[in-house]
Amino acid sequence: METIDLRSDTVTKPTPAMREAMAGAEVGDDVYGEDPSVNRLQERAAQLLGKQAALFVPTGTMANQIAIRAQTRHGDTVLAGVGAHILRYESGAAAALSGVQVKTLGQDGTFTRAEMRRAIPPRDHHNAPATLVALENTHNAAGGSIWPIDQFEAVALAARERGLRVHLDGARLFNAVVASGIAPQRWAAACDTVSFCFSKGLGAPVGSILCGDGDSIDRAHRFRKMFGGGMRQAGVLAAAAEYALDHHVDRLADDHANATRLAAGLAAIGIRVDPQPQTNILLFHCERDAELAAGLRERGVLVNTMGPGIFRAVTHLDLDTAAIDQALERIADAYESL
Ligand code: TLP
Question: In this structure, which CATH number among 3.40.50.1450, 3.90.1170.20, 3.30.70.141, 3.40.640.10 belongs to the domain 14-246?
Answer without folding.
Answer: 3.40.640.10
